[in-house]
Amino acid sequence: MNCSAPRREGRRRHDSQRPITAKKMEEEIIQPIPKDVLKRELTPERQLRMTNKSNNEIYVITAQDAPNVMREIGRLREIAFRSAGGGTGKAADIDEFDTMEGGCKQLIVWNPEAEEIIGGYRYLFGNDWKLDDKGQPLLATSHMFHFSDQFMRDYAPYTVELGRSFVSLEYQNVRTNTKSIFALDNLWDGLGALTVINPDCRYFFGKMTMYPSYIRRGRDMILYFLKKHFDDKDNLIVPIKPLTIETPEDELSRLFDQASFRNDYRILNREIRRLGYNIPPLVNAYMSLSPTMKLFGTAINYGFGDVEETGILIAVDEILEEKRVRHIDSYVKEHPEALKITSGANKVIYKSRHEH
């Protein structure tokens, strides 16, 4: 779920957990793939649905069945992540989890008018995860997090891992592109459809990403706040090398002294603004998605621009009703036949506009 999103620049500081290394030379990003080549691979059977807003199209592809679309995704991902302070430094952000047999599928939002990709995610359902000789899943997050036996037994078979979420740079500015307003919304329409198509999908597992350029004190406030209200007490997933905050914890506990999430959030928003920053949009989005989100701690992703990745798990059935209606229910109304292949694991909530 690690989505690149616009953020305000801050001074980069090296902390004690971050080895001071020279920044690797970045390769020149590949040229755009011609639109007619992309359109040939975006065939009707690969279209998942239309979006709720903006009349865009959602497709699911793999590197094997649509290699040129995969290259364009890799190009757009690298541009988006580099601009935010991350990225691989390679000519395109494509790795073995994209290309290996049985690897991640790519969910993309396509603008049929401009004939270009607005954004995307990659995903892999838990029943498709491969395991190493220690029973750990072979995922893009495996070098940062350890997965408990309890998680692998009780959660993994019903989980979809999400990653490399991005919005193309051209769609990150609302002022210059009206479709930008709904870019994230469109991506979540696709995720909503996945939970109906795959009846075993009960949990989203992914990462919230913060960049090294974000002011340290602000980052510490956000991580402390999230831990206070969403901390996973069962140690289902733990960082192998957890990032520790620099701001004294007793100082933060005095600051966030409210009993309710809502009141502490007001304090967080006020203090971040005082620093001249905003809470990153995706952090806000995930917090508002589910009141029972589980937070697994934070690790530094040294192979991806030293970004800070916080593991999260969201239960589909506990997503707030308004979000469910918008992203999941809308798919069922568009594709009633999809209900025939569900086991009832994910109850669909119907709500008309006139209900209160």
Automatic annotation (TrEMBL):
Acyltransferase in keyword set: yes
Pathway entry: Lipid metabolism
GO MF annotations, alphabetized: acyltransferase activity
UniProt protein name: Acetyltransferase (GNAT) domain protein
InterPro entries noted in UniProt: Acyl_CoA_acyltransferase (IPR016181), Ornithine_N-alpha-AT (IPR052351)
PANTHER family, A to Z: GCN5-RELATED N-ACETYLTRANSFERASE (PTHR37323), L-ORNITHINE N(ALPHA)-ACYLTRANSFERASE (PTHR37323:SF1)
Keyword Acyltransferase: yes
UniProt cross-references to Pfam families, sorted A to Z: Acetyltransf_5
Keywords (A to Z) from UniProt: Acyltransferase, Lipid biosynthesis, Lipid metabolism, Transferase
Biological-process GO terms, alphabetical: lipid metabolic process
Region of interest (Disordered), ranges: 1-24
